[in-house]
Amino acid sequence: MFVTPLIAAPMAGGTTTPELALATHGAGAFPFAAGGYRTAEQLATHIAPLRAAGMDFGVNLFVPRPFPLGADESAALATYRTQLLATARRYGTEVPGTVLAEDDPKVQDFWAEKVDLLLADPVSMVSFTFGLAPAPVVARLQKVGTRVMASVTSVAEALAAVETGVDALLVQHANAGGHTAAFLSGPTNSSATLPELISAVRDAVKLPIVGAGGIAGAEDVKAVLAAGAEAAALGTALLRTDESGARTLHKDALADPAYTATVMTRAFTGKLARALVNDFVRDHSGSAPEAYPEVHFLTAPLRAAASAANDPRALNLWAGTGWKSAKSGPAAAVVEGFLKGLS
Ligand SMILES: Cc1cc2nc3c(=O)[nH]c(=O)nc-3n(C[C@H](O)[C@H](O)[C@H](O)COP(=O)(O)O)c2cc1C
């Protein structure tokens, strides 16, 4: 299914730039554009340079939550808002007082319009995270010639994905940087490694697999391939590269020995995501409710203010467990380094 064993993973929020996709493709990886947080128009602009280059690439979308926020989570959200006020004021900003309606296009992450765009102007592959695309959407994409990949974090999620008719699975381990793809339950505390998770999924499901999460070097890729995956996806390994759109503060933090650990936290967005441990993570992880994307919108002004103040203490410094190996410099050199290590 993939002509290369290396995938440049989608990283929404500005990290995956067209330049990053072009550079990783040029060096021999298969890149994914990041559709999350974007409107259809913004997504079209994001992928225009990739189309113009005539290259093969995928597009990743967030699947919106299929049910409204529960009453308990709504109450916890109000409490969390109050707790954030002091931190927000420290940064000279406020916490939004209103919660966006469930049917707000932002809460739905502009899902319908982006699916329509990808049906009208197809790409070779679409991957989904945060949930499963409904089977009719999968079928419509396949009908226009697009292969569809679901992101899963367990055997149970892989079996559920198969029911929707997808062509491939991205098997993501909890060591991954950024948001977990988990949708049935949080990432398990299982001690299974990524290769073990891939083997377990492979025993249960006969679909091509891409392995992701914590890949820091070529040896990790080899282990993923030996476990039965067709390819391995790099996220964190590309974060510090020249073409990555991650903030300088984020890139610098990844190289700063003052940061000594990553942790899964809901503090920034309401969905578990792996980040470097900073003050915000320490102060707010204990009380953040399971309310994505509502918490994302609550903390957005605060994160923007911290960034403007050049202060990483309240930033979401997404990082996988392999963050210490992430190199600066051209993305092509990182991809070439991995590929060389495989030969
Ligand atoms: C900054 C950042 C943003 C991410 N954004 C997305 C995204 O938009 N969609 C997605 O499916 N995965 C996203 N991920 C997860 C990656 O696609 C990938 O699964 C993960 O980075 C692999 O683990 P690693 O970071 O240890 O290499 C993101 C990861 C990071 C670090």
From TrEMBL:
Matches recorded under Pfam families: NMO
Recorded GO MF terms: nitronate monooxygenase activity; oxidoreductase activity, acting on the CH-CH group of donors
Catalytic activity: 3 propionate 3-nitronate + 3 O2 + H2O = 3 3-oxopropanoate + 2 nitrate + nitrite + H2O2 + 3 H(+)
SUPFAM superfamilies: Inosine monophosphate dehydrogenase (IMPDH) (SSF51412)
PROSITE patterns: DHODEHASE_2 (PS00912)
A biological process term (GO) from this entry: 'de novo' pyrimidine nucleobase biosynthetic process
Cofactor: FMN
Keyword Oxidoreductase: yes
InterPro entries attached to this UniProt entry: Aldolase_TIM (IPR013785), Dihydroorotate_DH_CS (IPR001295), NMO (IPR004136)
Protein name: Propionate 3-nitronate monooxygenase
Organism for this UniProt entry: Arthrobacter alpinus
